[in-house]
Write the structure tokens for this entry.
Amino acid sequence: MEEKEISQAVISRLPRYFRYLGELKDEGTERVSSQELSDIMQVTASQIRQDLNNFGGFGQQGYGYNVGYLYEEIGKILGLHKEHNLILVGAGHLGQALVNYMNFERRGFIFRGIFDIDERIQGTKVRGITVRPMREMERFVRENDIDIAVLTIPKGSALEVAEQLVSYGIKGFWNFAHVDLHVPENIQVENVHLSDSLMKLSYNLASHDE
Amino acid sequence: MEEKEISQAVISRLPRYFRYLGELKDEGTERVSSQELSDIMQVTASQIRQDLNNFGGFGQQGYGYNVGYLYEEIGKILGLHKEHNLILVGAGHLGQALVNYMNFERRGFIFRGIFDIDERIQGTKVRGITVRPMREMERFVRENDIDIAVLTIPKGSALEVAEQLVSYGIKGFWNFAHVDLHVPENIQVENVHLSDSLMKLSYNLASHDE
DNA sequence: TAGATTGTTAATCGATTAACAATC
DNA sequence: TAGATTGTTAATCGATTAACAATC
């Protein structure tokens, strides 16, 4: 049962709030007003209050927000209290880098399996996890309750692999392949298109020095 | 001399247009109407026409757009006809993955140097490029006309390193460190916050299965 | 209580979509 | 020429900012 639909613009800002609140928390700060947060984060206090109030009244008039509480609550909104079981599909440089990055695990995103089409690396390990052949993927996904697939494979095979994974029960894709996946609407896709990002930087560099 | 300022929302869509036009071009398609592109890309024809007309009239009434021409023009708008000299700062797994990724070079983004604080990897090579100590960075940046720094270093050191790099003449940052850089407004920053992206996926997964 | 700051409504701004005259 | 489709203006929609009453 869906509450009022929250816009993706708001969702995109939540991790940034979460990060700044985490830093305030680590510094031992107990309370913060929307105005103080506004000064630090360079967004309007009004936007902060609007964004938070999409999810409930976390503050208190005359006081502001309790840092620790708000941090926890945003974490819950983001679903960080739940664990997710991930597989990596495509054990190239980028894929291996993602598996080796410790911070995802700290947030509950745990790589359970790695798959690659290249026979030469099958059987090798990345951070203790064996690289398996693609044909073992279906069984692995079903038996290990995998909900997220991280795609670091060439664009040519991504559509086909994604379709298979949906049929195996995958619920979300973290997609680094440079294509737009076509998946049923109950499946979530988060794209990381690195070359798009670099092109945007290129544009901004070019448009600046005119 | 700045023309009318183009919104970042529009800029963000350009690489996607560029990608689809490249595919059409590879298929040998010569012309495309905004409506056809709309069907393929799942955005409105109106938005496509509006976006393109920010940069000039690339189409022709009654005909549509010439695929090859539009592809070239968007490439120019994105600044892809110019070469950029990059350095990597932080030769961890992610940094090495980026250097090894061939497609950036194809678009004119060329890694010239790699720097890392860790003495154990200094002197080793990544894709033929020697990893150098940080103290050589200033001279290298100045002598090799480096304009983009790719930051794949821990958040703790990112602010300081970025400040130094600005003073050495760096014009743009591709920032993978999980902090917001504070740089002068004539310096461009493009952030890739992977954990933010993953949290967004997490939210969408959680909010879906309610 | 008085002061501070939220939660929320109203106003503004900007981005998207629709419509259509211009024109190839 | 008639048909098609752009370029562009106008209308709509949504997101951001401002304002302020509620309230701790």
User: Anything to note?
Assistant: The two ends of chain B are 51 Å apart (CA to CA). Chain B has a mean pLDDT of 96.
